[in-house]
């Protein structure tokens, strides 16, 4: 998020003259593009900073960002074209939102950043600022990864319950409103952030809420910022809700003759009242990839994985109830594990699923879908998508957070073959439109960026997009915050 802001702030404060240096560097700022993803900052944590310099620097970080943002606010209002200016799109003859279109509305731009910048960000943006054990919350900076945070919290018997990709940082997770496999039990990022500190485009530093667990005081600015993908402000501090590490857990796995049977069991489990912490679905192609990658011999059929938590007795009771449900829906080979090492080995299968796919085509790239539908439509969505995927010449893998209706497809394609790319885009678009026809969404957790802007009008309606545009214009009139992302460029009001 906002590498230009980070860079100007860090360098200007290191020279002890923040505002003047930020102004002087403002022309340099415009060379950088914003990018938003769950991996918006490097995931590898450097050694924990132990010098007073880092503590001093991190406390000044919001001010540095404010000075940088303020300097950009004084620039010419022609930094970026209006979001509803159609000229650059017309020249490329891109039809926005047409059902037959497989083009992106706006092509993203990737700019390399220096290792020096990455090292500075690691040093200043990754230390835990305050842990309140009795309140079960923690105040962190946006560059810390969720895995590193949980390593820090483990000795206190606490953990942060969202688990997206291994490299995800807290800042990126806020930007995309991500979730993960535990969302079925603990909710998404919007449910687990208590408050934020955000630098706005004009340089104002906003605290979105107090540290209270609930509040009815004014507009919910926290949820406005979460999922805004860096288009409304730069997050500099996050207060997170924590959970107790469960006393006991059981991991179970079972097989099915068809993917619809597996999806039906996921739905039946949720309707039974069982509070599973994870319900993950893998199709036979994904299991085949896991076998290749890990030299395993798992049955290459649709597979469900569960996790149950609580007391030892409660976890076992949940396991037995689900085992009965599985047997009623053609399920077989129900196995479960309680030993820590055995559980780790089972979940390793799921956690490394994406990387396992590349063992089937090491030189290919992956296009990953991220649709989500109301739970009652999940089985139909997966069945219809699977028919289309199996008929494609490309290798397509299905994996789902089946407990909350979120469905991913990994489509492997040769980036050097245009017909491969277009087929991958066609399949992705087929699944998006199928999900939208079932009152679903084009993105359950990965975000919009530029690639999914063309679906938003069909999903939300032009009135919702115009409202978003008004909010964007009010908070960022010069369009300096991640320009060209999230809101389709044809939206005017």
TrEMBL record:
Co-factor(s): FAD
Q: Where are the membrane-spanning stretches? A: none
Major location category of this protein = mitochondrion
Q: Which of UniProt's keywords are assigned here?
A: FAD, Flavoprotein, Mitochondrion, Oxidoreductase, Transit peptide
Reply yes or no: does the keyword Oxidoreductase apply.
yes
Xref: Gene3D superfamilies: 3.30.465.10, 3.30.70.2740, Vanillyl-alcohol Oxidase, Chain A, domain 4
- GO BP term, example: lactate catabolic process
Q: Which PANTHER family match?
A: D-LACTATE DEHYDROGENASE, D-LACTATE DEHYDROGENASE, MITOCHONDRIAL-RELATED
What family classification does the UniProt entry report for this protein? Answer: Belongs to the FAD-binding oxidoreductase/transferase type 4 family.
Q: What is this protein called?
A: D-lactate dehydrogenase (cytochrome)
Q: Which organism is it from?
A: Durio zibethinus (Durian)
Task: List the top taxonomic levels of the source.
Answer: Eukaryota, Viridiplantae, Streptophyta, Embryophyta, Tracheophyta
